[in-house]
Amino acid sequence: MTSYYNKVLEPTSRTTLRRRAGRAKYDRAAIDAILDEGLVGHLGICDPDGQPVVLPVTYARLADDIVFHGAALGRLLGTLAQGVPVCFTVTLLDGLVLARSAFHHSMNYRSLVVLGEARALRDTEAKLAALTAVVDHVAPGRSADVRGPSRQELAATEVATLPLREASAKIRTGPPVDAAEDYALPCWAGELPLSLAAGAPLADARCAAPTPAYIDPYRRIHAKSIAA
Ligand SMILES: Cc1cc2nc3c(=O)[nH]c(=O)nc-3n(C[C@H](O)[C@H](O)[C@H](O)COP(=O)(O)OP(=O)(O)OC[C@H]3O[C@@H](n4cnc5c(N)ncnc54)[C@H](O)[C@@H]3O)c2cc1C
Question: Which of 43, 47, 54, 65 has its CB surrounded by the most CB atoms within 10 Å?
């Protein structure tokens, strides 16, 4: 299914785009760039009653896996750790696409769907590596500055990993595509670019440390090297 030699994921029957197939990307460069830039993903599982639940989570890419963490007693990570089928998505919104007709309005985006089964990480070293990756995913370099998890904190935290094997990216760029007869309409049409921007850091009142460089300036656009 997966070839890491040329770093392109083979589309499966489940990840082959049928709608707007030309927007599909399966190469790891495109997939990893979305994962590495995103801060929040959405994890979909079916709970034990068969009810689909989609919840926002933070995550990190660790080479060829996506790692998640959460309360060991929580439903999400508890269910995930049992190896149930999951669907994980990340969406980067790049802009609004305002067409001349209501029908052709759209958005510019880079989005990712990952399917598979997660498994729990129980080995202490592997758990620590995954948690470090999550901290550094949010703020690269942060793990070196902060206290790591205590034994109790580690025990209270469930960590799960999802292999990056069956996945698709979908990318839309560019202006609206209107019906030929609508180009004569007088209304404004075009793109409104959107991006995530950090505000000025607000130091905690009891913090005397200088602001670290990874916080100011803070940028999400950083391509991690692929350690595949
Ligand atoms: C910000 C944003 C807003 C959107 N708004 C809408 C909306 O309002 N209405 C709407 O119908 N669609 C919307 N889409 C597109 C939507 O995500 C689906 O691509 C689309 O609905 C087609 O779904 P499908 O199941 O018919 O696709 P199919 O092509 O049949 O899906 C087959 C497989 O292709 C892959 N795939 C499909 N969509 C995506 C995707 N977005 N990213 C990565 N892989 C994908 C998956 O692996 C999926 O299992 C939006 C997408 C984004 C990112």
Answer: 43
- 119-137 pLDDT, tens digit each: 999 999 999 999 999 999 9
Atom 40 of ligand 1: nearest residue by CA position:
170
- What is the distance between the alpha carbons of residues 37 and 224, in angstroms, rounded to a whole number? 9
Indicate the top mutation candidate among 10, 86, 170 to test ligand 1's pocket, ranked by most ligand atoms within 8 A of CB: 170
Dist CA 115 CA 137 (whole Å): 21
Give the burial string for 33-54 (b: 16+ CB within 10 Å, else e).
bbbbbbeebebebeeeeeeeee
pLDDT in tens, 29-41: 999 999 999 999 9
d(CA 191, CA 24): 21
Rounded-to-integer distance, Cα 20 and Cα 172, Å = 9
pTM of the model: 0.94
Q: Is 97 in the pocket of ligand 1 (CB under 6 A)?
A: no
